[in-house]
Amino acid sequence: MDDYLIAVFADRIQAESAYTALEQASLPTPEMAILGKGYKSINDFDFIDPPARRRTLGMMTWLVPFGFLAGLSFNAITKLDTFPWAGTLGNQVLGGVLGAIAGMSGAIVAGGGLSLLISDAPPYRKLLAAGQYLVVVTGNSTGLAAPILKQMGPQSLRGSN
Questions:
Q1: pLDDT grade, residue 122 (50/70/90)?
Q2: What is the fold of 4-48+128-159?
Q3: How many helices (H) does the chain have, and how many strands (E)?
């Protein structure tokens, strides 16, 4: 999700009033949602960035084998004896395993996988569990929705920009 705006309200009535105010301002309904008891759950809305997951897994499919081959080749060329107990073939395989680990960590960093670890979802899960409601606006409507939601007096208002 690129642009988003999340308003936290103490109860269902306030959240519904905010949603109605957004509807009256002619904001597109597909870009708005209420999260809470009786409405969408955080799992339905998916705060976690699925494109980052796909990019990370896509990069892993070629970086892990490439890292393995690079580590194996490097060890074979340099004839390093890092693990004397493993012998020549064992050192090459362990070099490949270490290269695969390096490839995996590179895929996580370059593919945006760190955003999967640092997600907004856990704090919002706690708010929903405490009986609060979230009004979420996504897409190009966030700029129009911000002043409307501020007028509704949310407990907090947070956006991607």
A1: low
A2: Alpha-Beta Plaits (3.30.70)
A3: 7, 4
